Amino acid sequence: MSGGDACFEAPKVSCRCEGSLPDEVRTLDVEKVLQVDALLVSSRHMFRMAYSLHEKSGLVSLPIDPARILEFDRDEARPERVSCERVFLRGDVRRGEAARLVTEALDYTVSEFGEGARSGAVVVFDLPEHALPEEAFPPCMQAMLAGLGDGRKRALFAMTNLLRGAGWSGEQIEARLREWNAKNKEPLREVDLKSHLRYHGGRKAAVPPPGCKSFYQDLGVCRPDALCAHIRNPLAYVKRKAGSGKKPRKKA
Fold this sequence. Notes:
The chain is mostly helical. It has nine helices and four strands, in the order H-E-E-H-H-E-H-H-H-H-H-H-E.
């Protein structure tokens, strides 16, 4: 039985409609459709690494033969029943390839002028001498810092880059992010927060947060004011409103 057939009840009913419809049509089993995991089609869903463990259920993220999807049983994902025999990734990969991909994804930014990593230019921001006040932050950052229910990890990177670009010290950033995490509907785990802070603490260059505005629209925090129409990056908003800092320069 195919996945499409599984969503229909076996009995067929007569159709008395006029027109070119067949004499009999299958009725849709709505209950089976509602069983689909909505997270799989969420634009903010993050896929897990194959054979990694889910932190809450303890089950394995198990690669499945597409032909056996409808036969899959949850107990098959218990660690004691899993063997890493199924080849999930192709064999012609280079060592460190995934690490570089993740690093480049995290470091990709859009500058105030709408250009970024795709142009081959490195955007360098002059850090202000003193930490710029939170009152100068754009509405999107204000909304994120008030606490979130979803999209916390992505927001964490954006906020960290903004705080660092606004001249905040490592100690100030950590204190503010811990305060933010306590306001979240479901706080991030301590190990995740520590790992994030350690990663950013080891970086030398300050990187601006993602440019406006699809990133923030997707998180549901894009609430532009009059100044937003004149900037392309939240960090540019802060510097312009606070009246501090120079425009970013580019290195070839």
